[in-house]
Design brief:
Blueprint: H1 2-13, E1 19-24, H2 30-44, E2 50-55, H3 61-70, E3 75-80, H4 88-98, E4 102-107, E5 113-114, E6 135-139, H5 144-157, E7 160-165, H6 173-184, E8 189-193, H7 199-212, E9 218-221, H8 236-256, E10 264-270, H9 272-275, H10 281-300, E11 305-311, H11 319-323, H12 326-330, H13 339-351, E12 358-361, E13 386-391, E14 395-402, E15 421-422, H14 425-440, E16 447-453, E17 458-459, E18 465-475, E19 478-485, E20 495-500, H15 526-530, E21 544-550, E22 554-559, H16 581-588, E23 598-609, E24 619-626, E25 631-638, E26 643-657, E27 663-664, H17 666-679, E28 686-690, H18 697-709, E29 715-717, E30 723-725, E31 732-736, E32 739-743, E33 747-752, H19 758-777, H20 781-797, E34 807-812, E35 816-821, E36 824-833, E37 840-846
Parallel strand pairs: 1-2, 2-3, 3-4, 6-7, 6-9, 7-8, 9-10, 10-11, 11-12, 27-36
Antiparallel strand pairs: 4-5, 13-14, 14-18, 15-17, 16-20, 16-23, 18-19, 19-20, 21-22, 22-24, 23-26, 24-25, 25-26, 28-32, 29-30, 31-32, 33-37, 34-35, 35-36, 36-37
């Protein structure tokens, strides 16, 4: 044609090398002849470096892709356009010149360019479009994947099956077994021997089906055959034997059924028609033309649900199994579809009225230069350094090399006394987020759900460890991610999480009061009291500035902004999608003040809603423990009170226990005592701290009660001096040596252990009790008598008569002694406090059972 000659001239003028150009019409018998001539010309001489196939309609792409795969040195472009239209030749030439491997594109008359890409489809259907009143004609349906799918559709819907095939069940064991399976499943199925490429025979068979089973209202077409051969080896018979069962046979079936009654048409094709495959040019053409035919019919018959399903290899059944391809292909990264997966996927495609007419169902299929998944460029991120598997919108696996040189934060995250660094869990969260963002190609930041910290990634100063992140899209906007490493041969998940890009934004969890951070800081220096004695973190992680409330159940702390120290080596990407990992690590650190004698590491987070620019400014972190499910909630606010991040369901795993200190920081002793009450099944909350300098006793009491119950707590005083709070909760307060203790119990008392005239102070009965405790606890009489005196003070504060009997209960290691007062218990603890010269005894009178706000 004149346009073809003009195109050839334009390509020659573009001086783009030696090549072949073909203009293929949209239909007609000459299509295949032109494609074969093109392949022959390309393969005839090694001087050919470029091939341009211009198709006026679909049908040549699979052939062109196979040609490129068999002759990869030839840059091949398949372009859908009409070269006779204005401006199209220039566009085709520009497209061809820009092709250095394989390229497929289409140009509309107005010059609009499109490029075919595979995109993941989410299926949402529920009901099949056929039922017990229907008859499904199943071509090629006695064996292989077609039989498996037909059986499951009929089993669920009750539709009758009319199976068409060339084999004789009397001599074909597989066919006979499948027919027996269908009968055993209660499916109405009849087998008809017929060659689907024989139009007259097919018409007669469809008439026979109508007389015996009923009118055909559905077609499942799975006929086909394949004998792989290279392009140079293919003959006329090879093309005919491959294309006719796919296309001529389908046309014969469709010409024999009533289109007005047709509810469903499903054809089984191959991904080969979409991607091409070395040695499969004839099969690629057959499958592409079959899918094109289904698309044409779908446009003409809107009442018919049309599905052209292009499969990759199945395992156990199907053509790949018969050809012996499955094991060989698995070695090069091709993953097969199991029968259960295939049947489930077909059911979803058939049941969803909005599913696409043509779909590809596949596992991994290795490197395929002829298929695109939209944007195939990953963002420049630290943990996506070396992509291993990448199907945009579907799956990503990427490696990165960790070392102390490339990752300077590791040197600051070494367990005390050890020499190996531990990858911070918050860096693991960042790595998983980078993988999720990379696979979806989005700029959004996800909500993280079901985060699990399963096994630490550990490496020494001179080691290098390959970190592998994997991300799989499991639903629209939801990505399952894992982290593995060479340290465990990539056989264990170190971290797991689901990244949800559909999640709702930040919202308060409802327990944090920003005013709590406005309470005066407690007498606790994180730089010396937290980091070193309790936490092993290096400089960039030391962000807890002050503690304003803490106990076994809660803490409120102010945090410094991140240090701004570089996280990765000089020539590595520096972007952190979730902000400063050290700041996020610091969100967990105040929990250490809640359990000062145990070292616990993160175990998981049910739901983490990250905030923008984490670590860029000072923040306040509020934590609370929910005893009903042994989880923590974390809410982070800015200094203006605005919520900037939340964690729900944070859990920890106990690593070790510290030796109980001989001398306590007062603030930490409160957390320890409160946990002791919980462990013994006693109700109560307790806090203590050194009084701010110059504060009066009543003001110190009010401050400690606000720390105990919240900054918004109103405090008043009875005439006898006992404090009351506006919530109505029972509280008690005690002061000694510049220390104030407040507790949500009937009675609490703090006393110095001193030599006193205990006989006069206690009287004979309580002196005898003190002597019993001294003997049982193997301690001095002064300490034991101070326990009894403190217990008596608690009795009075609880509103009981001063003469109320107090009896011995038990002693425990570490300074504990328990007493009883009727139905109530008095727990006493003897220890020393920092900056207090004398030993002290602290006594708490309470009852069994959970305190308000706790459940067990």
């Amino acid at each position: 044609p004149r346009a073809g000659r003009a195109l050839a001239g334009a390509l020659e003028a573009a001086d783009c090398g030696s090549g072949v150009v073909a203009v293929v019409p949209a239909a007609g018998p000459e299509r295949l002849d032109l494609l074969r001539e093109t392949a022959a010309a390309v393969l005839a001489g090694k001087e050919v470096t470029r091939c341009v196939i211009v198709q006026e309609g679909p049908g040549s792409a699979g052939f062109g892709k196979t040609l490129h795969l068999e002759a990869p040195w030839v840059a091949t472009a398949v372009i859908t356009a009409d070269p006779a239209q204005d401006g199209q030749i220039a566009r085709i030439v520009a497209e061809a010149v820009a092709t250095d491997g394989f390229r497929e594109a289409a140009y509309a008359a107005d010059g609009t360019r499109t490029e075919p890409v595979l995109q993941q489809v989410a299926l949402a259907g529920t009901d099949l479009p056929v039922g017990s009143e229907d008859v499904m004609l199943v071509a090629g349906g006695g064996k292989g994947i077609t039989a498996e799918c037909a059986l499951e559709l009929a089993r669920e819907s009750g539709t009758a099956l009319a199976l068409l095939g060339r084999s004789d069940p009397a001599s074909d064991d597989e066919l006979a077994a499948n027919l027996a399976r269908m009968t055993a499943a209660g499916v109405t199925a009849r087998y008809f021997r017929v060659d689907v490429t024989d139009r007259a025979a097919v018409a007669a068979t469809v008439q026979e089906i109508g007389e015996s089973l009923g009118k055909v209202t559905a077609v499942l077409y799975g006929a086909g055959g394949n004998v792989p051969k290279l392009l140079e080896e293919l003959t006329d018979d090879d093309y005919r034997r491959t294309i006719d069962p796919k296309v001529t046979g389908l046309e014969a079936v469709l010409n024999s059924v009533d289109h007005d009654a047709l509810k469903l048409l499903v054809t089984f094709g191959s991904i080969t028609g979409r991607a091409g495959l070395r040695g499969e040019a004839h099969y690629a053409v057959a499958n592409e033309w079959q899918s094109d035919l289904v698309q044409e019919l779908a446009a003409r018959l809107p009442h018919t649900r049309c599905r052209a399903v292009e499969w990759s290899l199945w395992s156990g059944v199907g053509m790949g199994e018969r050809l012996g391809s499955v094991e060989n292909l698995s070695r090069v990264g091709v993953h097969t579809i199991t029968p259960d997966q295939g049947v489930r996927m077909l059911r979803g495609l058939v049941a969803d009225p909005d599913a696409p007419v043509v779909s590809v169902v596949t596992g991994r299929f290795g490197q395929m230069p002829t298929v695109r998944f939209g944007s195939d460029e990953l963002p420049l991120l630290r943990f996506l350094e070396q992509p291993r598997v990448f199907y945009p919108g579907i799956e990503l696996v990427a490696d990165s090399e960790l070392s102390w040189a490339n990752d300077p934060y590791l040197a600051e995250h070494v367990f005390s006394g050890g020499t190996n660094a531990v990858l911070p869990g918050t860096v693991g969260i960042e790595a998983m987020t980078q993988a999720a963002v990379g696979v979806l190609g989005t700029d959004a930041v996800p909500v993280l759900e079901d985060v699990e910290f399963l096994r630490a990634v550990v490496l020494g100063e001179d080691e290098k460890v390959t970190l592998r992140v994997a991300a799989l899209v499991t639903a629209p906007g939801r990505v399952t991610t894992v982290v593995r490493s060479s340290a465990t041969r990539f056989q264990l998940d170190h971290y797991r999480a689901v990244c949800d890009f559909n999640g709702t934004g930040l919202r308060p969890l409802g327990f944090a009061d920003p005013a709590d951070a406005d309470l005066p800081a407690m007498a606790f220096e994180p730089a010396t009291d937290l980091y070193g004695p309790m936490l092993f973190h290096g400089p960039r992680f030391k962000l807890v500035q002050s503690v304003h409330r803490t106990g076994a159940q809660l803490a409120t702390s102010r945090l410094l902004p991140g240090t701004g120290a570089p996280w990765f080596g000089r020539y590595l990407p520096s972007t952190l999608l979730l902000g400063d990992p050290a700041a996020r690590d610091a969100y967990m650190q105040p929990i250490q003040t809640c359990g000062p004698t145990v070292l616990a590491i993160p175990a998981g987070i049910r739901r983490l809603v990250p905030g923008p620019a984490t670590g860029s400014a000072p923040a306040t972190v509020h934590v609370r423990h929910r005893f009903d499910d042994e989880e923590w909630d974390v809410e982070v606010t800015g200094r203006d009170g605005r919520v900037i991040e939340t964690w729900e369901g944070f859990t920890t795993q106990l690593v070790s226990k510290y030796e109980v200190p001989a001398v306590w920081v007062p603030m930490l002793l409160g957390s320890y005592l409160e946990q002791a009450l919980i462990d013994q099944g006693l109700a109560g909350r307790i806090m203590l701290d050194r009084d701010p300098e110059g504060i009066e006793r009543r003001a110190a009491s009010e401050l400690m009660l606000k720390r105990l119950l919240g900054a918004g707590t109103g405090v008043s005083w009875r005439p006898d001096g006992r404090p009351e709070v506006d919530s109505g909760r029972t509280v008690s307060v005690s002061h000694r040596a510049g220390i104030t203790v407040a507790a949500a119990v009937p009675g609490v008392d703090l006393e110095l252990v001193e030599s006193r005239d205990w006989a006069s102070l206690l009287g004979p009965d309580r002196l005898a009790l003190a002597e019993t405790i001294a003997e049982e606890a193997d301690e001095s009489l002064d300490t034991a008598a101070t326990r009894v005196w403190s217990a008596g003070e608690c009795v009075v504060k609880a509103g009981l008569p001063v003469e109320t009997p107090v009896v011995f209960d038990s002693v425990h290691e570490g300074g504990w002694a328990g007493l009883r007062c009727g139905e109530q218990r008095v727990l006493t603890f003897a220890t020393r406090l920092r900056d207090v010269a004398e030993p002290v005894v602290l006594a708490v009178l309470t009852s069994e059972g959970p305190a308000e706000g706790q459940t067990r």
